[in-house]
Each structure stands twice: as structure tokens, then as C-alpha cells.
């Protein structure tokens, strides 16, 4: 009699793959709502169009692999990958940018490796990095948030921006992380005073966005979708790095711990990206190391690298290191090593 061998992610009882993915989608709603409030309906257009592309690519890949369509199209895994990618993209990205990014995430980063449970890298972040390297101008064009601009584009304007970009003229500006990375001579107090993008300790709107994703992440923790080890280790490591190198405001300080915690995609990355059960470490000790590595990499790339937000690159590097981390953090087999000698 042959035994059935299945790969991760393993789910037991009511926590099936479908229910987990549906819960993750539900948890993104607070963050999506706050992003839409500050940046307009472009976020929603991204998600809707990206979801259609993801399902189409999923169906095409399953057809080529001669697998049943319904079980995989209805498990929400493709929608989760596309939603996470589209949340990370600028709100008024052109349709072709969404098409390339989502297609690469589903067809290459997911199905080329064998589909759900086999991908060594986070599919959403693979798509994001491909777009960031290939189209840096489009990926850095963020709309002016509410609070600096008088209003944000509506739904019809967002549709026009997506499908007829040449007819859409939106006011854009650098993100606070971009400005912090480019600062070479001003004290932080001077940088904050001379740029309307900054609030008290972070960029206008970004603290609310990060708090919203923190709420969604705590909801996922409450539901038992993942453990606390990875997210907390990442946030602590990022905070510690920022604290060590923060000198109370010189141009070389890189920003305070609060600035790094509530800017860019910090909370989104901590609770929605690095917690991917397939591409992260598997043991609790491994997740601590995995999360801490990502936190250190995020700070290092933000302050010393050319890509200010850094979450995608940090996660992909840690994905690459996950098997090595697992090899050295697996629990000891009972009765072998670590115990008292007779």
C-alpha cells in the first residue's frame, strides 16, 4: 500500500488552505481602507484588476499542467498573491505594470516551481522586485496623500489612470523613506520642517496605514493563522538597529525606531509577507532567526542601499536562507543530545 505524501502548507481541521487564505484577504481590509482614504481608489482598482489577471493566469497554468481547475481556483491562493502584490504597488499604476507583475508572480514564482506548497520564494515579492528593477520610474510614482493634497482621485479617475495613463495627470512626490535615504546634509528636524510629506515622526498617512495593517496582523494572530515569532522578531530587530544607529537627529542617523516602524511597508511586511507558510522557516526557533534576519536586512537596505522600502528584497534574501535556517534550528529528536547524562 502506497502512502500519500503531501507538502506544505499543512492545515488541519477547520483551518483549511481555503479558510486560511480567505482570512488573510479579510485581514487586509483595514489596510486597504486606510490606503484608499489617503491615496484614493487606485488601490482598489489595482486589487480588482490584479485579481482578474491572477485567476486567468492560474487557470492557464493549471490547464497546461492538466490539473483540475475548481479546487485551485477556489482556494484563494492566487487572489492572496495578487492582492498582496497590488497593495504594495503605487495606487495609479498602469494596467500593463499590473499585468506583468501579477503574471510573473503566478506563472513563474508559483507554478514554475510546482504550484502552491512548492514555491521557495514569496510569489508577491518576486513580482514586486521584477517590476522595481525593470520599471523604477513607474514603481516610484506615488500619488500625493490626503493631508498634503486637497483631495484624492475618485474611482473613475483611478480607472482612467489604470487603462489610459496618458490622459491622467496626478500630483506625485517622493515617499518619506525616499527623502530619508536621499538626505545627506540636513538634520532630521530640518528635513521634517522643509518637506510636507513628514508628520510628527513619520510620513503623512503612513502611520495610519501601518496601524491598519498592524490591526489586520493581530487579527491573523488571534485566528491562529501564524505564530508571533517571525513578525515580533522582525519588528524588534528593525527597532534595535534603528535605535543603535540613531543619534537623535543628524543627517547620518537614518531615522528613529518609530519612523522605521510606521513608514513604508513595515507592518504589512511583518504580518502579511514574511509569514508566508511555504517560503519561511518552519520551526519557532527558525522563525525567530528568519524574522530577525529580515529586520536587520530592511534597516540595512533602507539606510545603505538604493531601494528605500527594502521589504521585498529582505524577504527574498531570507527566503533563500530559509532552508539553511531550518537545518540548524530543528528541534532535537527526543532522547538525542541536549539532555542530562547518566
Task: Describe the protein's architecture and organization.
With 342 residues, the chain is mainly α. The protein contains 17 helices and two strands. It has helices spanning 17-27, 29-39, 42-64, 69-73, 77-88, 95-110, 123-134, 136-139, 155-163, 176-182, 188-194, 206-223, 229-245, 257-261, 266-273, 284-304, 311-329; strands spanning 142-143, 172-173. α2 (29-39) packs antiparallel against α12 and α5 (77-88) runs parallel beside α7.
Structural class: mainly alpha
Biggest β-sheet description:
2 strands, antiparallel
| Number of strand segments | 2
The span between the termini is: 42 Å
Q: Estimate the mean pLDDT confidence.
A: 85
Please report which band the strand proportion falls in: under 5%, 5-15%, 15-25%, 25-35%, 35-45% or over 45%. Answer: under 5%
Q: What overall form do the CA principal axes indicate?
A: globular
Short description:
With 342 residues, this protein is mainly alpha-helical.
Question: Any key phrases for this structure?
Answer:
342 residues; globular; mainly alpha; two-stranded antiparallel ribbon
Secondary structure layout:
Elements: H1 17-27, H2 29-39, H3 42-64, H4 69-73, H5 77-88, H6 95-110, H7 123-134, H8 136-139, E1 142-143, H9 155-163, E2 172-173, H10 176-182, H11 188-194, H12 206-223, H13 229-245, H14 257-261, H15 266-273, H16 284-304, H17 311-329
Antiparallel strand pairs: 1-2
Amino acid at each position: 500500500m502506497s502512502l500519500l505524501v503531501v507538502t506544505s502548507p499543512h492545515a488541519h481541521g477547520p483551518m483549511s488552505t481555503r479558510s486560511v487564505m480567505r482570512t488573510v484577504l479579510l485581514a487586509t481590509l483595514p489596510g486597504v481602507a486606510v490606503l484608499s482614504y489617503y491615496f484614493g481608489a487606485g488601490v482598489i482598482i489595482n486589487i480588482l484588476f490584479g485579481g482578474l489577471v491572477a485567476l486567468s493566469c492560474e487557470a492557464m497554468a493549471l490547464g497546461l499542467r492538466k490539473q483540475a481547475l475548481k479546487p485551485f481556483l477556489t482556494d484563494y491562493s492566487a487572489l492572496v498573491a495578487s492582492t498582496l502584490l497590488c497593495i504594495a504597488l503605487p495606487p495609479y499604476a498602469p494596467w500593463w505594470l499590473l499585468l506583468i507583475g501579477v503574471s510573473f508572480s503566478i506563472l513563474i514564482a508559483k507554478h514554475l516551481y510546482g504550484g502552491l506548497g512548492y514555491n521557495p520564494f514569496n510569489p508577491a515579492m518576486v513580482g514586486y522586485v521584477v517590476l522595481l528593477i525593470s520599471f523604477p520610474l513607474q514603481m516610484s510614482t506615488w500619488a500625493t496623500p490626503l493631508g498634503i493634497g486637497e483631495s484624492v482621485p475618485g474611482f473613475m479617475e483611478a480607472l482612467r489612470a489604470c487603462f489610459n495613463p496618458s490622459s491622467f495627470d496626478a500630483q506625485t512626490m517622493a515617499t518619506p523613506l525616499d527623502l530619508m535615504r536621499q538626505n545627506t546634509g540636513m538634520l532630521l528636524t530640518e528635513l521634517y520642517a522643509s518637506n510636507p510629506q513628514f508628520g510628527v515622526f513619520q510620513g503623512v498617512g503612513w502611520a495610519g496605514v501601518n496601524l491598519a495593517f498592524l490591526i489586520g496582523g493581530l487579527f491573523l494572530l488571534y485566528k491562529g493563522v501564524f505564530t508571533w515569532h517571525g513578525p515580533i522578531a522582525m519588528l524588534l530587530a528593525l527597532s534595535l538597529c534603528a535605535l543603535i544607529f540613531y543619534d537623535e537627529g543628524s543627517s547620518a542617523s537614518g531615522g528613529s525606531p518609530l519612523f522605521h516602524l510606521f513608514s513604508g511597508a513595515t507592518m504589512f511586511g511583518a504580518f502579511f509577507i514574511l509569514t508566508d507558510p511555504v517560503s519561511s522557516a518552519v520551526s519557532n526557533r527558525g522563525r525567530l532567526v528568519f524574522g530577525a534576519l529580515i529586520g536587520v536586512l530592511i534597516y540595512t537596505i533602507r539606510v545603505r542601499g538604493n531601494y528605500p522600502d527594502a521589504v521585498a528584497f529582505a524577504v527574498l534574501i531570507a527566503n533563500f536562507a530559509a532552508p539553511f535556517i531550518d537545518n540548524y534550528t530543528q528541534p532535537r529528536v527526543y532522547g538525542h543530545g541536549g539532555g542530562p547524562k547518566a
